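A further point concerns the way the authors explain their paired sequence and structure data. Since the whole study asks how a given chain folds, the encoding of that fold should be made plain. A single example would do more here than another paragraph of explanation. An entry of this sort, consisting of the sequence and the corresponding backbone structure tokens, reads as follows:

_____
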Amino acid sequence: MGYDLQTVAIPLGLLLNGLNTMLALIPYGRAGLVDWKGGWPMALAAAATAPIGALVQPLLPSGTVLALFAGAVTVAALRALWGARSRPWSSAMGREPSKSGPLLRNGFRVGIGAVVGFVGGLLGIGAGFVVAPAFLSLGYPPKQTAATTALVVTVCSFAGVAGYAPRLDFPVAVAVLSALAVVIGSQVGARLMLSDAKPSWITRGYVVILVGVAIKLVWEASNSVFS
């Protein structure tokens, strides 16, 4: 839409992303899908590093930020595509099959959360594409993965917005209309996932969206570099 990447698009994107996942988190929590105990270590680590990413971002050229953003989404798209083709997601709920101890698992969560928070604050993304594979690697089934990822992304996104607070420059009309769209879309999407969505739908939809966004961003980043 032509808005500045670093002063409008990134902080507004973080705000809407946090609003989206927060609203989706409500029905997920009521359905008992959120692993609060397992999600909070990652969420709190992300909250600590997201403002740092937000403070570092203005020091980088806008073309560099766009290129990094495009690269992150491309990696996520390739990772999702590989995962969808090589490992079908199970729909069964259950305990984590990982044989590592609680200390090691929590250390893994904190490490991922710290990276996710910094990248999210820097690039204006919730980094769910990193969080979801991390929970899957711990043995979470897809619906519990989506629900617990929403917790981490919510905390990370709002912490990132806090880092941008001194220089926020939202167009009020765009912010309000986008927020209303997010309120409607998040509830429709969450209820669809809780009721009728099959794990294969979640996988394929995730891949299609990420691949499409990755292609668009790589094209824009290439134009920015070579123009």
